[in-house]
Predict the 3D structure of the following.
Amino acid sequence: MASFGCERMIERVLIANRGEIASRIARTCRRLGVEYVTVHSEADARSPHGSGAIANVLIGPAAPAASYLRAERIIAAAQETGCSAIHPGYGFLAENANFAQAVVDAGLIFIGPDARVISQMGDKTEAKRMMAAAGVPVLPGAPDSTDDPAVVKAWLGDVGLPAILKPVAGGGGKGMQVVNELRDGIAAAETAIRLARANFGDGRLLVERYIAGPRHVEVQVFGDVEGNVVHMFERDCSLQRRHQKVIEEAPAPLLSAESRREMLEAAVLGARAIGYVNAGTFEFILDQAGGFYFLEANTRLQVEHPVTEAITGLDLVEWQLRIASGERLPLRQEEIRCHGHAIEARVYAEDPSAGFQPCPGRALGIIWPPSLRVDAALNDAGDVPPFYDPLVAKLTAWADDRASALHALSDGVSRCRLAGLTTNLGFLWRLLTHPGVAV
Amino acid sequence: MDTDFIELHIATLSGGGAVPAAAAAAATVFRSMTARAAHLSPWGGHGDPFDRRHLDPDAPLGRQTFYHRGSPIEVCLCAETLSALTVRIADCAYNVTAAFDDTWWQGTVDGIAWYALAVQERLELVIGGDRVVLTFADAPDLIGTEGENAAIAPMPGVVVAVTVVVGDRVAKGAVVAIVEAMKMENQVLAPLGGVVREVRCRKQETVMANQVLVVIGQQE
């Protein structure tokens, strides 16, 4: 069903991000012959993410609020350089509904779902309510959100312990608190509210039942402007540390055919119900009995999208660009196949032997393993500035089966050379070769 | 394998402890190799150290000292063959191999892969994926003249809270500031009990690692 025939591919796009994801988006642009403009802060003046761009616009000082979060400056940069669309990547402005709307109001294409859907899914209370209404299973939780610690404590009694406090406006696990004892409720709520206010400008929290020993499985979906929705199978992101994903894989291991089918169907159902357009991810939490509950919907390209690309052979950024250009979904559901197994590891500049403290610094030499797919912020040498996420690279292995993919990834990790920067590579190797991960 | 897996196994996964010694074992190879002519085989090309065996039976091929975070690690060089070197640190023996390719040094320590780059006065080593920085001389005191009276930033970041003012009495271990970097809040603690003499940072200020944030005076 490809294109309508009259839709023209976006000719020039502004990539409103930095690091590995900016380089990743640029790679597809080059392959498709789409011109791209990059932006950078003063701290990223020499960052390789501007490579190959027809322009690389300085948008402000190092602090994110003064650069990568400056919506008007970024939109102006797109207009000044003749771009017709903006790709937000992930993080920064990617899930900011006001930004998405401002891009459209400026006469540009926002590569992602529309502002209304971003806003609905960004408000976790609203997202959960909408999913429950659409028939998607959701977790037991308080019916609303609050930024009053006393109300949080009262709700903890209703929801039941253990419970988890989550910022309404948050993402990536930032500011979440698990409460095991009612008497810790007030202190945990105060911390979570303060972090939420500081990071998201919104202190409201959700209170939900906490599932012990859960798995985290998410479904990649794509929708088009005609209301067609397909899934691209699931990813298991259970190997996390404090809600930050470390290892992701596709398909999810040890998932019954029935659970998989139900979860994929639930995600498509949820996406269809809200008129989802472009790339999105429906996150579910799996309890030990195989039950699954909607966690949140991420209205953007995910960090871990390479594993989905590896098992489907599709380029998700290409799909994003084509759908944003007004095309229909490039493939029907039955044309999207899952082959083999893919596993991704996130290389962070952090010190596992010191509580995983982030370690910004200068890499003096890097050699990435040729046997793996590498999505890196740095190619040979360069800085990991202290102002942003400490993600240095994503390493992805693909093989016919899980055991081979796991071996290929741990072997590749052991072959990385990265001098001058403290990273979690040793930790990743120990994790990937741990008998408990070999299942 | 669930979302608690990493936390459950964090002790074995985090590494740490034994790594600096193994890195120092590897570093001896680096140093003895650089001291020789480049065209020679790593271990051959010189006579049997007969005299040294008598002079220093624990370290017939010599001793080397490296510093890791200010602490010395003494390595005794015990024996060498054409392909490997045996060294001893405290009561632990290590078998080390090495090769040099262009810029990188690489090899194994007891079968675990290591690689390294030499950078001015320090060695950047990675062993089994874990980074260790060794210096040949004792590192200068990064904290500055305040020494142990200073509460310092544990890492580069932004000061999000300063909880004390000059004149406040603080207990040892009290939180005096919070530095945020890359989504993490780090508490800066008073290294000793006393009176706050100076506050050298402000909220929202960007600070560097080891920068002095608060100076504390002993109680009179």
